[in-house]
Every structure is written in structure tokens, then in C-alpha cells.
Amino acid sequence: MNDIVLNCGYVPLVDCAPLVIAKDLGFAAEEGLALNLVAQPSWSALRDMLAFGSLDAAHMLSPMPVAMSIGLGGLPARIDTLMVLSVNGTVFGVSNAVAAELGDLPFGDAQALLAALAARQSGPLRIGVPFHYSMHRLLLSYWTSTVEHLDVEEVTVPPSRMADAVADGFVDAFWVGEPWGSVAVQQNVGQLMMTGSDVWKFAPEKVLAVRHDWAGFNEDAARRLMRAVFRASAWLDARKNRTLAVEILARSEHLSMSPDLIDPAVSGQITPRLNHAPEPVAHFLQFHNHAASFPWRSQAAWIAQQLGADPAGIQKAKACFRSDLYRQNLSGIGADLPGASEKVEGGLQVETAVASTGGHMILAQDAFFDGRTFDFPSGKR
């Protein structure tokens, strides 16, 4: 029997790792898949390729399927999230000039950084983000909305161009996925001030997305793809595999860059500025542990709410996070599945055991920096 050929788009970032590992280490082949990874230059290009059928699946920013499914962004389409590919993995940084204005701030203190930025007297702060419908932009908006007197101008910059945008003075600050924050540090054009997890401890960053009709007509291919990616994600979160993971991602056909720029995200050792000791960040980038790959429908609801969706739009968003397919397609390979598909977002201050099919599930902290919680089934925020 011939393998099923799937074309899967991605943007070269560390968090495309589950797809790269599924292909390179044979998890896809073992599921009878020939996985063709197709690099894309931007998120808009990847979006269009998936929507118009040139790709079967895609490594996507988590808000993109939600935005497209509720009719935002100029290209409405029913897009499903089969599973989460990565949690966290982003950094917020500033230019060296802005860093000098802010003074000596502790790395990772979202409240202190926000207060310092609001106290600047240098006019609007131009902040680069990779795409409007991104977790970077939603976290930025959520974070800055809690303080007055901070004038923010959002600028869209492709991840690979972020360091250049800082060097050229096009942006004053940036929120980007690794390794592109570390690139800005290595080029000595910017300093990292915090990570995305300092605003939301367990934010879904990238997802495995497909067209809704494709999922319906290709149930077997979807199941094989999800199983291959699930196994790759579990492999990635095993500490013993980190060195090999970095080596594979660094190859010319994937990220094509020095392993030294990739290692910080995989190891969780983030260097804030040149010649500074690395800062250890717990759960900096998660692929599998703590139910990282589960598509929580409450996370989709939070995303939709941040996008300004009405109650009907929030219900559409929840429907596009396919926890039903996750349960259906992964139950047969030993996946420990949570007892519910929704939860109170931001409610976990510590690691917490929850009901699951295997009885061994522990969820990580998922608190927001301001202590708020979001309970969409009951309508409380």
C-alpha cells in the first residue's frame, strides 16, 4: 500500500519542531504518511495556501483558525485546529535605546516592565508582531490594556525580519517566537525583557490546522497525521532528546541556522542581552507534557473574546478546536485524555492533578499576570 502524501506548510520557527521530528525521525512514515514540509515566507502566505487548498495542513498561529472561522482577516474559511503544536515559546524585547531608558529591570516581571514603559516620555512605542491574528498580538493587547498612558503602535514584521527591524529603528520593541528574539540579542540590537509566559503561563502558541471540509473527507489521513505529530511531540519533551532535536532543527532544510540560536528555546535558558548569563524559564516551550497538545475549547473561547467576537462567534471558535477528533484519533495509542474539553482559563496557580482517562494527568500553571480568570461556560470573567 502506498503512503498517503500530505503537504504541510510551516514558518521556520523552533515551534515547527513536531512536524520536523515527525518527518525526520520516521513517526509519519510509521503511520503510512509521506509528509512533505513546505516552508512559507509569512503567515499571510501560509494562510492563503491552506485556505485555497494548496496545502493539506499547516503549522499556524493559534488565533488564525479562530479568526478565519468567525470571518475575520479578509479571508473567511472554516479552519479546524486538530491539536496544539506548542505552548508558549515567545519573547518580548526592546531596542538597546529603549532598554537604556528603562534602566535595570528584573527579567520576567510583567508588571514592573509595564509600569516602566508607561512612564517613558518618548512618544508612542512601536512594537513589532509577526501577524495581527497571533497570540503575540493578543497577549500584547491584554497586557497593555491594564495600564493607562501607554501609547502602543502595532507593526507587522515577519519573524525572520524582526532583528533587522529593530536594527533599522523601524520598531522600538518586539514580540516574537524563538529563535528570532535570540537573533536580536546575538546581533546586539535588542534586549529581551520577558517571555510570553510571564503574561499567560500556558498560552497555546501554534496549532496543527486543516480546512474543515478536508478533515471530514480525509478522516484516515487526519488520524495518521495526528498520531505521528503526537508521538513526535512526546519525543520532543523528553529531556534526553533535546540535543538531537536542536541538531535536526538547525539543518539547512529546516531552520538553517546555528544550533546556539535554537538551543535557548529547547532548553528554556533564555539570554536577555549579549554577554549576560542565561535566565532559566520553566515551561518556556512545551510540546506534549501537561496536556500541551490538547485543543482546549476554552482556549479558543478566550482567543475569540480577545478578538471581539460576540457569543455566536465564541461558539464558532470553540467548535473549530477539535477536541472531539483529538479524543477519537488518539485514544487508541495510549494518550491520556482530560475528562473535560473546557476549563477555567487562568485558574491554576500551581500544577494540579485533574481527571483523565489514564489517571495520570497533571496540568501546569496557567495563570494570567493580573490574576484574572476566564470561565466561558458560565460567562464569568
From TrEMBL:
Location(s) in or outside the cell: Endomembrane system
Q: Which UniProt keywords apply?
A: Cell inner membrane, Cell membrane, Membrane, Transport
Q: What is its main location?
A: membrane
Q: From which domain of life does this come? A: Bacteria
List the record's Gene Ontology CC terms alphabetically. endomembrane system
CDD domains hit by this protein: PBP2_NrtA_CpmA_like (cd13553)
Q: What is this protein called?
A: Nitrate transporter
Q: What is the lineage of its organism?
A: Bacteria, Pseudomonadati, Pseudomonadota, Alphaproteobacteria, Rhodobacterales
